[in-house]
Amino acid sequence: MSKYNLQSNESFILENDHVRHGNSNGELILTNLNLVYITTKGVFRTNYIHQIYPIKQIKVFNEKAQVVLGKDGNIDIYFVNGMESFKFWNTDSLFSMKKAEKEASRWINAINNLITGQVSEIDMAVTSKSVDSGVIAGAIKDTFEVFKGALGGKTQNNNEIAKKVAKKCSFCGAPISGVEGQIVRCQYCDGDQQL
For residue range 70-79, what is the model confidence (pLDDT) as tens digits? Predict the structure, then answer.
C-alpha cells in the first residue's frame, strides 16, 4: 500500500498484491474514490505504474454495480468507457480456484457495497462465511451514523444535531450541500472542499 498516496479525503478499503491484469502482475487497491492497479518495472522494480479507475465511473444497473465474477475467478468491472478484468492468484501452490473465487467475491461485494450500499445477492453466502459478522455490523453501524448525521439527526459520537449547509462550489460556482465541516466533492467539476 505504500506505493500509492491517498488523497486527503480518500480511505483505504481493500488491497491484494497478487493480481493479474492483462499481461502483468501487480497490486490492486480499493479506496472510497478509486480502484488502483500498480505494477513495477525496471531492474530494481522501483518504477511504479499506476492505473487509476475512478469508482464513480463504474456502471450501475438495477441498483447493482456492474462488477461480476468472470471465468477462472476473474472479476470483470464494467466502466462507462469499457471493461477491465482482474484475476487473483498466489504463489502458494495450494491457492486453489475456490480461494480465487472467494477473494473475487470479497472484492465484488466491497465494490458493490461502496457504490450502492448493498451486498451482491449471489455472493451473500460466501461473504457471510468469510467475513467476521462483527466487522460487518461495525461497518453498517458506522454507515448508519454517517447518514444519520448527514440528515441532521443526533449521532452517538456527538450529541448535537449536525448542521446542514449549502454553498457554491469555490471552483466552478455550482451548488453544493452537506453537513458543516464535511468534505464534499462537486458533482460538476469534481473539486473537493470542506463545507
Answer: 877 789 999 9
Does the global pTM surpass 0.90?
A: no
Q: In terms of residue numbers, what domain contains 87? A: 12-131
Rounded Cα–Cα distance for residues 71 and 74 (Å) = 6
| CA 96 – CA 133 distance, rounded (Å) | 25
Residue 49 · residue 41 · CB < 8 Å: yes
| Grid coordinates given for 5 | 498516496
Q: Is residue 152 part of a domain?
A: no
Query: Has residue 4 been placed in a domain?
Result: no
On the CB side of 186, CA atoms within 13 Å amount to 15
Q: What angle do CA 12, 125, 77 make, to 5 degrees?
A: 50
- What SS3 class is residue 28? strand
Kindly report, residue by residue over 7-38, the tens digit of the pLDDT. 888 888 999 988 888 888 889 999 999 999 99
The Cα 112–Cα 104 span in angstroms is 12
What CA–CA distance (Å, rounded) separates 19 from 13? 16
Grid coordinates representing 29 are 487497491
